[in-house]
Every structure is written in structure tokens, then in C-alpha cells.
Amino acid sequence: MIFSQARKIGLGIVASLGALALSTGAAYAAAAPPDPLNSGDTAWMITSSALVLLMTVPGLALFYAGMVRKKNILATAAQSFGATCIITVLWMVIGYSVAFTTNADSHLNQFIGNFNSFMLGNMTLKSINPLAGTIPESVYMFFQMTFAIITPALIAGAIADRMKFSAFMWFMSLWLLFIYCPIAHWVWGGGFLGQWGALDYAGGTVVHLNAGTAGLVACLMLGKRTGYGTENMAPHNLLFALIGASLLWVGWFGFNAGSAVTAGYNAGMAAAATQIATAAASLGWMFAEWIVNRKPSVLGMISGAVAGLVAITPASGFVNAQGALWIGVAAGVVCYFSSVWVKKWLGYDDALDTWGVHGVGGALGAMMTGMFASNAINSSAHGWLIDGNFGQMWIQFEDVGIVFLYCGIGTFIILKVIDMIIGLRVSRDVEVEGLDINLHGETVHG
């Protein structure tokens, strides 16, 4: 009898404790904030970051190195590699903070971020940037770092064969901090251009018009290469250039589809638009060259592909497949005439057509984004031809004009200061003998 009562009391206590534990756990679960992290988005963004990094080294390094003369192939590849290293460190120290943090002073935030993320001191294991949504801030910072790396590195194509490596490294550093970071904040970091409604999905103005404008200013300030117009300056190894362009093409899916910052519908459409526009632009350049020169060159096909990649960049998350096709065709034809005929008429020496492909292609893509952006793709986008909003074209024009003017003036000032202190250009003897042996003490054999 006593044993039976004790057993009943014991079971009652256990049941009560179990109920208490369940109710406490339910209350805690209800009170605990949900974890914003999405593992699928995070995995996609880490992959995208690696793809974009692939675009600079080895993609851009091979693309540019294959198009210069043999005596400068190492020096050209070293510019891409050196830019990757110095910009990585600067982005970690101050660049990310300036470009992608919110300034408490709302007026200042129109133009620049704050310095709270100096040395990434406030970035923890689980911190989230409001701009990033469902991925860790560390991944968002890394993704944006790869954009910051390739943008200044693109400028190297305009000044190939004649710039000091020391001057180049200084230029990369200063240009990143004073040109790229502010413009990235204006468009993507909560600044005034983004608030105005400028559409730049993955960097038509922030990356390509920006780099192309800087390249144009730089090649004009440096002057023509020794022997330009009289010596044979044909590419040393078009196979390298073809491999580099192919790596750029593959990496660009991280560039454009990754800019969705999620593995969702927009990423899928951005990837499809990128492929369609790139192929159409390559064909557009190829057929234009075929008609004019009677032969379709490999250099023309890969240049057209890059032009298409550039032009679809600002539009990739805002347009449908038809819009991507027309943007690609236009980019191939327009960039062909800009890089080949306009450059010849004006007589400037943009060695690897940075302005003709990235500057013109970026501006063209930004404007055509306003024409073909569709509400069916993104609710914030309004297109002239599709949605009947001509005002978006004016906003795109303002975006292009402001980036062009700020970058052009700022680049000129930076280069002028560097030239006054250490000089920009190698000596004539160094240029004639080659940058590889004189700047790096090495050559490519065979």
C-alpha cells in the first residue's frame, strides 16, 4: 500500500516536471529570435565570391597578358596579381567600411559610409549586414571585396606596356579609396544615386563605366606607346587571351547572378540573361567585323563576348530574356565600332580597349537597363519600352553622367599627384627592351 502510493507520487512529480520542461521550452522557442541565416543563400554566395575572384586571377591576368607583346606578358599579369593583393588588404582595413556601412548622419550617408568597420573590428562570427539579408556579413564583405578587386584591375588594359609597377600599385590603392568606394556607396550602399532610383544590378556604372573612364584618362595622360602606329603590336598569345576570356565568361555568373545575394528567382534570371547577352554580343561583334574586314577574328569574338558581359551587368536582374538579347546585340556592334574605328579616328592609345569595351559597354548597358527593365522581373524596376516610364531613362542618364565626371576628374588628380612624386611612365629604353626583365627581372621563355 505504501509502495503503491509512493509510486503514484513519483509518477506525478515526473509528469509535472516534464510538463514544466515542455512549457518552458515552448516559451523559450517562442521568445528566441529566428536565425536569419539561410544556408542555401550562404553556399551560393561563397561560390559566387570564388567565381568573381577567378575573373581577376587567372581570368583577367590571362586575358590581358595574352594581348600584349611577349616582352611585357609577365608585367601585365603581375598587375592583376598585385592589384588582387593590395586591394584585398585595403578593403579589409577601410574600403568595406567606407562603401557598405551606414553613416549615422543621414546627410553624410548620401555620400559616404562610416569608419565603424575599420579593420573589420566589429564583424563577428554571426554578424549580418542589413544590405546582405540572409548571409553572414563575412560572406557579404568577401563578395564585395572581389568586385573591389577586379574594378581597378580592369584599368590595367588601358595603360599596358608603359606604366611603372610602383606607380600602378599606388594608383590602385588611391583609386580604390577615393573613387571606387564612394561610388559603390552612392549606388549600392544607401547613397544618393541608389535613393534616386538608379538601376545598376551588378556594376554597369560602379564597375565598368568607372574603370573604363579611369582607363581613358590614364592612357591619355601617359601618352601613346613607343612605336604605336609604326610597329607591330599584335597580341603575343591569343590562346591565353581566349582562355582568359572564357574564365571571365564563367566567372561572370558569380558576378551577375551573385548580385541577387540569394539563391532565388532573380539569380536564375540574371544567369540566363548573362548567357544570352554574351553570346549575342560575340556574334554581333563577329558579324560586324566579318562585314568590314571580310574575316571574323578570334580576338573579335572574345572581345564581343566581354562587351556583352559588360553591357548586361547593370541589367541582368532587371530584364527578361528578350531584353538581354537586344542588349547583347547592341553591345557587340557598338563596342566594335568604338574600340576599332572611333579609337582609330581619335588616335588615342587605349592598349587593350578598356574604354571601348568597359566604358562604352557599361554606359550603353546602364542606359538600356532603363529601356528594358521589367516589373515582371523586379517590382522596383520601371522600363521605358516595357513599362512606359521614360523617367527611368533620365535617372540612368544622371547615373552615367555623375560617375563619368567624378571618376574622370578624380582619376586625373590621382595620376597627376603620383606623376609629380614618383613618375608614371617607364623610360623609353625600358619600354623598348621590355617591362618583364626591367621591372621584375624575369622573362617568359619559349
The best one-word shape is globular
Query: Roughly how many Å apart are the termini?
Result: 101 Å
Strand content is under 5%
**pLDDT averaged over residues:** 91
| Share in helix | over 70%
Low-confidence stretches: 17-22, 24-30
- Please tally the β strands and state the result: 0
Overall number of structural domains: 1
The CATH topology, please? Answer: Ammonium transporter fold
The total of helices stands at 17
Q: What is the annotated CATH architecture?
A: Orthogonal Bundle
CATH superfamily: Ammonium transporter AmtB like domains
Rounded to the nearest angstrom, the radius of gyration is: 26 Å
Task: Please give a structural write-up.
With 446 residues, the chain is an all-alpha fold. It has one domain: Orthogonal Bundle (Ammonium transporter fold), CATH 1.10.3430.10. Helices cover 70% and strands 0% of the residues. It has 17 helices and no strands. It has helices spanning 2-31, 39-67, 73-100, 106-109, 137-154, 165-188, 192-196, 204-222, 238-257, 265-293, 298-312, 321-346, 354-372, 384-387, 391-421, 428-433, 435-440. Helix 2 (39-67) packs antiparallel against helix 3 (73-100).
